[in-house]
Design goal:
773 residues, 22 helices, 22 strands
Length: 773
């Protein structure tokens, strides 16, 4: 996993010279982008395509979107890329059939052309060898096929087709996508630092804004690899660290076993030494033993890894934004790393065993016929250190597992503020000619009316996002009676246009005032609703109903809105339903602020699942040949919760494996100690020690090891769990309840691990033990 994302060279031509350009607020903190790494199309077309950047020899742009492929039946939703004509050249990829885009294809007014992926060509077009030159219908446009890419190429998000960027994204085509990802290749002999100096020198006014304040933007350049390592966050490193913890616990167990075997072989080594064997030969024998052990284990591990690779590839938490060629695979590099790691473990095992042999008094061992009382000498101390390390590692894993489990439980009980189990939602994509108010408003009303007439429908609502201000700076919001706008932290970055009945459809209660009605039309006074969060911070301790807000709806435009109601805080409009942070929300009546990108919500009278098909049929009929999305609102919640649960389940599984291995270590050390101290236990029994007292003695030895492991592991866990802070929600990395539970669990199971050795000690017959001694 680490090799695929962070170490292996990107599978592109001159990959080390590839960089990404992103547009960020001019006064934002410097550093690589993490969430939005795009450039506005205007900046790309008017600046980057024309500005002479001498540090680059190729610059390309792309984005992605969905279209409906019509092959005669119901349209099939396919995801494709919108790319500049030189993207394939930059990546060093050529079509398997036909040709790539020419410069004349990437101009306004050019005939519509498309390049297909090998997968789409095979699955939907029957792998037609004469497909080049034929036409395919994508949404409402017929495209001429000019090429088919080779198998396995689907850059970057599973793209199934590619269109030229200018005819699709130029502002004259009224596109729904207004930003692109820009990648480039450094010219030979040029450096990233030189490129950064060049983009820093670009006049801010050239980037589409003369604003010298928060609205101004600047360009940043970073190595392309950071796009992929950034997309995984630190998840890959966190899970690698978890696996490393389990590996360390397992190695400590194997080290204990090797140590016990070495102690049991001391008499044999003493005989060999007496017969003339030199210490070097004895050590060489130990090395061979351990080498065979670890190499056989490595072979078994590689076979298991080859089978498990399919499972790894399916784990959503490990699916990063990776181009073709960065998939997880068990190649010579990974296999070589595994074998090298195994040999390193074998060398360490041999070092510990050799130290025991070299330092042992082999003559005394030969004379006494056995090893001196085990568990108290150097070998015993090393065993105990291994067990303490195992317990400490298990504590770290259990703490992380406990925190993630609490996160999953917290999110599963989270009040979203709306009634998801009763709602079906659908989002059509209106064709470009429809994206004028006179057209899309009538279609939206027709869809709403027909959805309301479906059997089993209780209510229908509409919601659409309304962008405010510019992408670089949110709009100004000025409250009644105030001279200056609200600070950025307490204003919404956008508003929502909602229809009358929207709140009742989603089960969102109105805390104060009223919700929108059919009287809130375009000709009625402009009104708005806010959520409780905004009400508390905008007008603390007073009733917001009837107050007014001056809102910038776009650059140089403003409107004064009267607040008529306050909706309960909810996450219905947040893309991340479970993980969204509370903040201000502003709602406007759909008729007063309509949008060409509505989402429809249908509240069912009974189970919502039967409504999903008829909802889809209405959208397909009224918005034909277009991509659309329908789903149960509860499925969206479950999908987000499943990712959090998967994180927790994986780490819990690793933690339980680690705990079991640590307990085997405790059990093994105590069993070995009891075996070595049989004579001592017999003497204690002959002198009057009770069975209960002997059991307590053995259990006390185990608890000392456990206590030492806890004292070492808990502080390490407190430091290590800060690394997973980004995976925790509603949970503190230093949650005392989790740490107390981990300590209690480890203590209890350690007592269980020591029970059998303690019981064995209590059953030692003093006479037999003394006679054997």
């Amino acid at each position: 996993m680490i090799d695929a994302v962070r170490l292996r060279a990107l599978p592109f031509k001159d990959a080390s010279r590839l960089v990404q350009l992103s547009e960020v607020p001019r006064y934002a903190q410097a550093g690589p982008c993490r969430s939005s790494c795009s450039v506005s199309y205007v900046t790309y077309a008017n600046v980057l395509r024309k500005y002479p950047l001498r540090s680059l020899d190729v610059l390309a742009a792309y984005t992605s979107g969905g279209k409906a492929l019509n092959t005669g039946g119901e349209p099939v939703l396919v995801v494709g890329g919108v790319v500049s004509q030189n993207l394939f050249e930059l990546l060093g990829v050529r079509p398997q059939l036909g040709r790539a885009f020419f410069p004349e294809d990437d101009r306004l007014g050019a005939a519509p052309v498309v390049v297909l992926s090998h997968d789409l060509w095979t699955s939907q077009l029957g792998q037609d060898p004469a497909v080049v030159g034929k036409t395919v219908k994508l949404s409402d446009t017929h495209y001429t096929v000019i090429g088919v890419m080779p198998a396995g190429f689907n850059y970057e998000v599973g793209s199934q087709f590619w269109l030229p960027v200018t005819p699709v994204l130029d502002p004259s085509t009224r596109p729904s996508i207004r930003a692109v990802t820009v990648i480039a290749r450094l010219a030979p002999g040029r450096t990233l630092a030189q490129l950064r100096s060049e983009v820093a020198a670009i006049d801010p006014a050239a980037l589409g804004s003369t604003d010298k304040g928060a609205g101004a933007t600047r360009l940043e350049a970073v190595p392309l690899r950071e796009r992929y390592t950034g997309s995984t966050g630190s998840h890959d490193l966190i899970f690698a660290a978890v696996v490393l913890c389990v590996l360390l616990i397992a190695c400590a167990n194997v080290a204990n076993l090797a140590l016990v075997r070495t102690l049991n072989q001391l008499k044999e080594f003493a005989l060999r030494s007496a017969l003339g064997a030199r210490p070097a030969r004895l050590v060489r024998g130990l090395v061979v033993q351990n080498a065979v052990l670890v190499l056989v284990a490595a072979a078994i591990g590689l076979l298991f890894a080859a089978w498990f690779l399919g499972v790894l590839q399916s784990l959503a938490v490990l699916q990063s934004l990776r181009p073709s060629g960065m998939e997880y695979r068990l190649d010579a590099r990974a296999a070589g790393f595994a074998v090298l790691l195994a040999l390193t473990v074998g060398l360490l095992l041999s070092t510990v065993s050799a130290r025991i042999v070299i330092r042992a008094d082999l003559q005394r061992t030969l004379r006494l016929g056995s090893v001196a009382s085990g568990g108290r000498g150097a070998g015993g101390r090393i065993q105990q250190l291994f067990v303490v390390a195992q317990i400490a590692s298990a504590v770290v894993l259990l703490t992380g597992a406990g925190l993630l489990t609490r996160t999953a439980l917290h999110l599963s009980r989270l009040d979203l503020g709306f009634d998801a189990p009763k709602v079906v939602q659908g989002s059509p994509s209106f064709p470009h000619p429809w994206r004028v108010k006179e057209k899309y408003l009538s279609v939206t009303r027709q869809i709403q009316m027909e959805l309301g007439q479906l059997p089993g429908t209780a209510l229908v609502g509409i919601r659409a996002g309304i962008p405010l201000g510019s992408p670089a700076a949110p709009a100004d919001v000025t409250l009644e009676g105030q001279e200056f706008p609200l600070p950025r932290g307490v204003i919404p970055t956008g508003a929502f246009a909602v229809s009358p009945g929207y709140f009742r459809t989603l089960g969102i209660s109105v805390a104060q005032g009223r919700e929108f009605t059919d009287r809130d039309t375009e000709n009625a006074p402009p009104v708005a609703m806010i959520n409780q969060w905004a009400a508390r911070r905008w007008w603390p301790g007073t009733d917001p109903v009837g107050r007014t807000i001056k809102l910038d709806t776009a650059s140089g435009l403003s409107v004064t809105l009267t607040v008529v109601g306050v909706a309960r805080d909810n996450r219905a409009a947040q893309p991340s339903l479970l993980l969204a942070e509370d903040g201000p929300e502003l709602y406007r009546p759909y008729e007063q602020a309509p949008s060409a990108f509505p989402t429809f919500f249908v509240r069912a009278t009974g189970a919502p699942a039967p409504l999903q098909k008829p909802v889809r049929e209405i959208l397909v009929r009224l918005v034909p040949d277009r991509p659309l999305f329908t789903s149960l609102a509860s499925d969206l919640v479950d999908a987000q919760l499943s990712t959090v649960r998967l994180n927790a389940v994986q780490i819990v599984a690793f933690a339980l494996i680690g705990l079991c291995l640590a307990l085997l270590g405790v059990h093994g050390v105590l069993s070995y100690a009891v075996g070595r101290r049989t004579q001592e236990i017999g003497i204690r029994g002959a002198l009057g020690a009770t069975r209960a007292g002997l059991q307590r003695m053995v259990l006390a030895d185990g608890m000392w090891l456990t206590t030492a492991g806890l004292l070492l592991g808990l502080p390490v866990a407190a430091a290590a769990t800060r690394l997973i802070r980004g995976m925790l929600y509603g949970t503190n990395p230093t949650d005392p309840l989790v740490y107390a539970a981990v300590g209690l669990v480890v203590a209890v199971v350690s007592l269980g691990a020591g029970y059998l050795p303690a019981r064995r000690a209590a059953r030692v017959d003093p006479l037999i033990a003394l006679r054997a001694g």
